[in-house]
Amino acid sequence: MDKKRVYVTRRIPDEAIELLKKHFDVEINPCDRVLLREELLLKVKGKDAVLCLLTDNIDEEVFEAAGNKCKIFANYGVGHSNIDLATATKHGVIITNTPRVLDDATADLAWTLLMVVSRRIVAADKFTRNGAFESCDPMMFLGREITGKTLGVVGAGRIGFNFAKKAKAFDMKILYTDIIKNNKMEKELGAIFVDKETLLKEADFVSLHIPILPSTIHYIGEKEFSTMKNTSVIVNTCNGSVIDEKALVKALKDGEIWGAGLDVFENEPNIEPELLNMYNVSIVPNISSATMETRTNMGLVAAENIIKVLNGEKPDTCVNTDVLK
What we know:
The chain is an alpha/beta fold. It folds into two domains: 5-101 and 292-324, Rossmann fold; 103-283, NAD(P)-binding Rossmann-like Domain (Rossmann fold). Helices cover 34% and strands 15% of the residues. It has twelve helices and twelve strands. The protein has helices at 14-21, 37-43, 60-66, 85-90, 103-118, 121-129, 158-166, 183-189, 196-202, 222-227, 245-254, 292-310; strands at residues 5-8, 25-28, 49-53, 72-76, 94-96, 150-154, 173-177, 192-193, 205-208, 233-236, 259-262, 281-283. The strands form two sheets. Strands 8-7-6-9-10-11-12 form a seven-stranded parallel β-sheet, sandwiched between helices. Strands 2-1-3-4-5 form a five-stranded parallel β-sheet. Helix 3 (60-66) links the parallel strand 3 (49-53) and strand 4. Helix 2 runs parallel beside helix 3 and helix 5 crosses helix 7 (158-166). It is globular and about 70 Å long. It starts with a strand and ends in a 15-residue tail after the last helix.
């Protein structure tokens, strides 16, 4: 009997690919880039499963191209805003993601950005590499201390909790806000539940860990930046659309906030041009999960979901659960 066919839209760590190859015929995008639209439509045709990335726009046209044979699109990432879930359910296609395995890596990167921005590491690194360092100047690259300051955590889910947990090592006061209280966060970390406005007014550092929903688009805009301390730093590793990027540029230029660390952007892959030349901004290209351990585990979760679905079993991390009924 012919093996079932799986298409992978971009190369991922070998362990996941080898796992899939034990069970199926696997084809992988050979190009080191996102597939063009016409390429994606061609490649999903006749496949039993597709392992896709957040950079792939999976909509009605793609499901139509894949046809009734395709049972699952396994998204390589915890997010799934790139997939039309309602249409997937209508077509009877299971959508899965890779939650939990990237919590540590994402929280780690949020802390990295917080520190890099606060201590002006990128600017100091460039300065030193360019041979400009001659002697110690007591006014050179003055940053902001972290220890003993107030941390504001927006979103108290797994990643938000993980991020806040690391603040204990810096003897920080932890404020958090969410739609509901997190009793574990309060009991174990001493975190204090406050409303959004209070958090923004009092926090020296604000880190965003919320899902992208209609209610969270531009969660931080002109009004919010004007509320924040002019010495504050904001970090975003969740979704670019939760920050109004034009408002962020204005806030940084006008000195309403001190700095920003960004792993995600509102109109990816495009970035507000002025951000690229600002000394008080550190930007990285969606690398919150970019550790060998995490990216491998993400691939293994996606592969296991495909194996289970094509063997007639329920996947571990189905997003559109209505399709399983």
